[in-house]
Amino acid sequence: TLPLWNRQGEPIGEPFRGHQSSVNAVAFSPDGQTIVSGSGDATLRLWNRQGEPIGEPLRGHQNPVNAVAFSPDGQTIVSGSADNTLRLWNRQGEPIGEPLRGHQGWVNAVAFSPDGQTIVSGSWDNTLRLWQVGDWKHWLQIACNQLQYHPVLVAPETDVAREAGETCQKYAWNSTESAQFLVRHGKALARDGDFPGAVTQFKRALKLDDTLDLDPEAEAKRLAVPALIAQGEQLAREARVEEAIGKFQQALKLDDSLNLNPEAKAIEIATSTLVKQGERLAEKGQIDEAIAKFQQAVSLDGTLNLDPKAKATELGVPVLVKQGKELAAEGKVDEAAEKFQAALKWDDTLELNPKSEAIQIATSALVEQGKQLARQGRVDAATEKFQQALKLDNTLNLNPETEAKQIAAAAVLEKAKQLVKQQKYKAAIEAYTEAQKIDSTVKISAQNWNEICWYGSLRGEAAAVLATCEKAVTLAPKSAGYRANLGIAKALTGDTEGAIKDFETFIQLSENEASNEQVQGYIDALRAGENPFTEAEIKRLLGE
To answer: Could you tell me which of 492, 487, 459, 461 has the C-alpha nearest to residue 472?
Structure first.
């Protein structure tokens, strides 16, 4: 319901009844004689001061009406709804135009500007929007002014666009504005090569505004001649020679001072373009298509020094061979063989067996892929690649699994050597061990083990590398140096007795008196309970 109240808060008469749901918004007309209400039943109602409904409910919204307002002249009502739209209504309750759409949420508030030309709306989408209202001439004026420089209006391509321009001239623009538009339209026509149409528009403009500094024919010619030449050149590039000649002749007719031979110019451009197109096709291996382009060029210009088949073959055959090699390297043997066969078709001097060549390249690629995978430690994947290679060429001297393991192990061995150089001795030992797990035939030399033993012991990792010292001695028991290094490792790990025994063995094996004397000194120190491997001694041994 809608109850009326006086200024003292007392009800005036009975409540207005008619809505089927809550009343969410109300407003008085500026003259105070009419009330509009908006309801949750998705309708608006008009009422007089006595609470009598005026006409039928205003229907159109799909959801509750949340806001209403009268225009300042009282002739228009705006409503905002939970259907995210605004609607305009006249005083008789009839809808005006289509709903105003744009909000992404309920419209909760609406109001007119004092001049009645603008509406503001507020929404649950956290935005306000401004809307312009007015009669059709007002809207037409705005639209025409916005479009007066737009290509659709200036250079119309449809009857609708042409009629729009005429409508703007008739209803929205004064004579000066219309004249300026006609000049723009004339220039657009001239730039499109339409000399007569441009002259017509320029003359119409002068009739509307004789103050224009404009010579219709001179201006149309200035713009149309370059446009006609450009159109002719484009047509020639498309091999539409007769049409190109026609455009050049039109340009020459407008400006006989042009240094232009229409037929020669069209043929020159078309021929040059066809030759370039043929070259591009040949460079893609499309020899038949290239020959067709070259033949078309020769038919246009009989003086052209060009053998279509020879030129296409010269450019295209190497491309076909290259494509075949690339396909073979991807394992696409049949497709590669087809490319090689196509190359042979055009050049039978090629020393090439299509199938064999494709298999050889594919096999080499698979073997190389297998090697790369093996170097990455992916033995199973590498084995599979080698098996694929064998399937293509069973003459390969290759055991897939053995080859994969040997390459993988070799890569790990190389990694171990690098780790030693980086002083990562534990990691190096693990790498050597891993290599032997991958390939049980791998032999780690006494020298490899001794290198880890020597540097690891002297750089503070004697306990970690002790086993490598023992392996070096096991592999080369008569090496005095390896035995001494084992002794150093034992001494540094607290095995004094073991160290003394190894140093004594060194003296027995060594024939170097100076070294023997040095090692005897180690023995004496150890027996005396002293540590001969001071920081200074270690630096001396490392040569630092």
So the answer is: 487
